[in-house]
Amino acid sequence: MKAIALIGGPIDLWPQKLKEIIDKNQNEIIIGVDRGALYLLELGIIPDIAIGDFDSLKPDELLEIEKKVLDIRYSNPIKDYTDTESMLKTALIDYNVEKLQIYGATGGRLDHFLSTLFTVINPEFNKYAEKVELIDQQNKIIFYNPGSYRVPNELEYKYFGVIILNKIRKLNIKNARYDLKSYNTDFPYSFASNEFLPESKYFDLSFDKGNVAIIYSKDIKRFNNL
Amino acid sequence: MKAIALIGGPIDLWPQKLKEIIDKNQNEIIIGVDRGALYLLELGIIPDIAIGDFDSLKPDELLEIEKKVLDIRYSNPIKDYTDTESMLKTALIDYNVEKLQIYGATGGRLDHFLSTLFTVINPEFNKYAEKVELIDQQNKIIFYNPGSYRVPNELEYKYFGVIILNKIRKLNIKNARYDLKSYNTDFPYSFASNEFLPESKYFDLSFDKGNVAIIYSKDIKRFNNL
After folding, report:
1. Which band of pLDDT confidence, cut at 50, 70 and 90, is reported for residue A221?
2. Is B172 exposed, middle or buried (CB count within 10 Å of its CB: 0-12, 13-18, 19+)?
3. Cα B105–chain centre separation
């Protein structure tokens, strides 16, 4: 089983067809996190689970969620788990899903975005990292734990970045536009704007220690007129 | 002296009054990075320095920059320094500025944003980290190296996040809504949505090892109608 979660980030950064994407996955677990639960209702989608402290919602907005969503998991603003952590826990541990696709996690307040990005690789959730994807209008982020991989070319995106999230040992990138051999660092680093070789179905990634995110991305026109 | 740099990120994430902000700083060093140089010209501002490979610009756009900007530093797409690294080097090392305010670094392609965020704390630039600010419409990011600080309350922003960027020792947050005592971790982590105490001018931050970013942030309405 798969889970799709919608967090409360800016809706103008959603992929254009988010409603269609979620509609196609009606049989999977749909989770609304905080304001994301309300956004789902506004899209005409009733989430299976709503998670959050809902403190940014007006009383009638929360009432709407309480009327329609069967499984609501209230969290406390002063708490052990953040809303995103509760969502990861629910999907990855309680439901043991094979894949968790998260929308609405980017843009807006950057402490929130980084919270989601880093939570995926923190010790409690690290072993599930390869199941998680963060997706917005022009980026898709996936995660790898140490090992050797063929990272698939996703034709929708022109670029990929290799993001070192912590102390890394023997990082190799092969069969890409910019290769890298046995790279070590104790600092996070983002190798941006790499590309797949023409007609290549994958590039080779390997490393011995640390956490890596691959960010597929593309350029899009967004209000780029002054 | 101070430097203001504009990178080529989405312009809809700029602070609303970016032109006025830069106009007020005409006597400081104005740097345009890649498409950021073109954006400055379109705002009626001639940057002192333009840095980039400019490979995303059309020939007539590049010509416009070459006609108007006196100091152009071309970088090579296959290179030792990224455009952002070249900009940091120019401002922080060559010009030894007291402060470097970077706009246009957020949003859009997230490998680019993380590249800028992480470059600030990488060994070559780390000692200058406390001079750097990344600013967009709803966030301001500043950096701290190990030590004890009073982090000033900036009234424009409601929240602050404490972002651990790498292995940290004895992190203390005091006199804030959510305090933290002698926290250690080997993983990046974002403590989001903290707040200053009412009428407080600062909170106390200290740590022995590692790198911390403070992200001031606020909620804004952005196309939030479905």
Report:
1. confident
2. middle
3. 7
Please tell me whether residue A130 adopts helix, strand or coil conformation: helix
Please determine, for residue B77, whether its predicted confidence score (pLDDT) is greater than 80. no
How many angstroms separate the CA atoms of B26 and A215, rounded? 37
- The C-alpha of A194 sits at a distance from chain B's nearest C-alpha, in angstroms, of 10
pLDDT of residue B224 exceeding 90, the answer is: no
The whole-angstrom separation of Cα A22 and Cα A42 is 13
Please tell me the distance in Å from B1's CA to the nearest CA on chain A. 28
pLDDT tens digit sequence for A196-212: 999 999 999 999 999 99
Minimal Cβ distance to B222: which of A10, A117, A118? A10
Per-residue DSSP letters for B101-152? EEES-SSS-HHHHHHHHHHTTSHHHHTTGGGEEEE-SSEEEEEE-SEEEEEE
B111, B107, B141, B132: which is closest to B213 by C-alpha? B141
Q: Give the containing element (helix H, strand E) for B81.
A: none
Model pTM?
0.95
ipTM: 0.95
- The answer for A 19-38 residues in CB contact with B (under 8 A) is none
Averaged pLDDT, B193-208: 97
Task: Count the helices and strands in chain A (H runs, E runs).
Answer: 6, 14
Give the number of other Cβ atoms within 10 Å of residue B149's Cβ.
16
Which residues have a Cβ under 8 Å from the Cβ of A225 and sit 6 or more positions away? Answer: none
